[in-house]
Amino acid sequence: MPLVLSTQVALPANYRPQDMLALHARDALQASEKVEGLRVSKGLTWQGRPALLQLELAEGAALAVASLAVDGPADTGDDQTALDAMVARMLGLGEGADQLALQHGKHPVLGPLLLSQMGLRVPASSSPFEALVWAITGQQISVAAAIALRRRLIAATAVQHSSGMLCHPDASALAALTPEQLRAAGFSVSKIATLERVFAAVLDGSLPLDAWGTQPLQAQDAQAIEDALLAIKGIGPWTVHYALLRGFGWLDGSLHGDVAVRNALARLLEVPSVSQREAEQWLGAFAPWRALVAAHLWASLSAKSY
C-alpha cells in the first residue's frame, strides 16, 4: 500500500512566499517541479522510492501544508520526522533571517537592502544530495545552462512517480547512468568524474549527506561537511558553500566566489567591480550570516533564484 504522509507548519508573519516559489519555478518546462499559485508539486526520491511532494502556502502565508505520496510500502524508519525536517528546510525556516536585520539593519550600505527585503529566507532543496548535484551541475556556467543540464539529467534516469511527475534521482539511480549517457545529457568530462566520485562516496557511506541533514547544523558540523566535500576532487569552496546553503540551510558559508554575488555587491557599493578577495572581506563582517547576505544580494538583482 502506498505511503502517504502529511504535515503543516506555521510561518513567520513576514514570510515571503516568492522566495520558495521562485526556486521551484526555475525550469519553465516544469517536468519535475510545478508551481501553481501558492502550491509547489515536486517529484523526489524518498527512501529509494518515487514520491510526490505537494507543498502549499495558505493565503496570507501564515501556514504551509505538505503532503507526500510515496510509491511502494511504508518504511520502518521515522518518515514523519524526516518529512517535517525536509519541509522546514525547504521553506527556509532556520534561524537567521530576522536576527540579521536586527543586528545590521542600521548598516550604512547593507541596512537599506535588508530593510527593503525584510523576511527574506533561503529555501533549500528537498535533500542535501539534490543540492550538491545542483551545485556541481552549476559550476562555471550560467543559470539557464545549469537548468537545462539538470532537466536532462533527471530525464535520463527516468525515475517517475505514479502521478506522472519525474523525480529527482538518488545516488543509486544516478550511479546507474553510464558516462556516455551523462555526456549525452551535456555534462563535461570533468563534471562527470566529480559526480561519479560523489555517487560512489554516498553509496559506500563515506559521504552520508542525508544523515547529516536530519538535524540543524552547528558550526563544527558544517566544518566537518566542508572538509569531507573538499576532499573530493572537482569540488571547491563555491560548490561546498552553495551546497551547505541549499542542502542544509547553513547561513554562514562564504559565497564570495559567486559572480552574481560580486556583481550585486559592486552595484550596492557603486563601484565598477568587486574581486573575490574584496567580496570575501566584505561578507566576513556579517558572520554568522554571510550566505544569507549573499542571498539578499542575489535577490537585489531581481533574477530567478539560483
TrEMBL record:
Residues 137-302 form the HhH-GPD domain. Pfam families: HhH-GPD. InterPro entries: AlkA_N, Alkylbase_DNA_Glycosylase/TA, DNA_glycosylase, HhH-GPD_domain. GO terms for molecular function: alkylated DNA binding; DNA-3-methyladenine glycosylase activity; DNA-7-methylguanine glycosylase activity. Keywords: DNA damage, DNA repair. The keyword Transport does not apply. The keyword Hydrolase does not apply. Residues 8-127 form the DNA-3-methyladenine glycosylase AlkA N-terminal domain. PANTHER family: DNA-3-METHYLADENINE GLYCOSYLASE, DNA-3-METHYLADENINE GLYCOSYLASE 2. This is DNA-3-methyladenine glycosylase II. It comes from Comamonas koreensis.
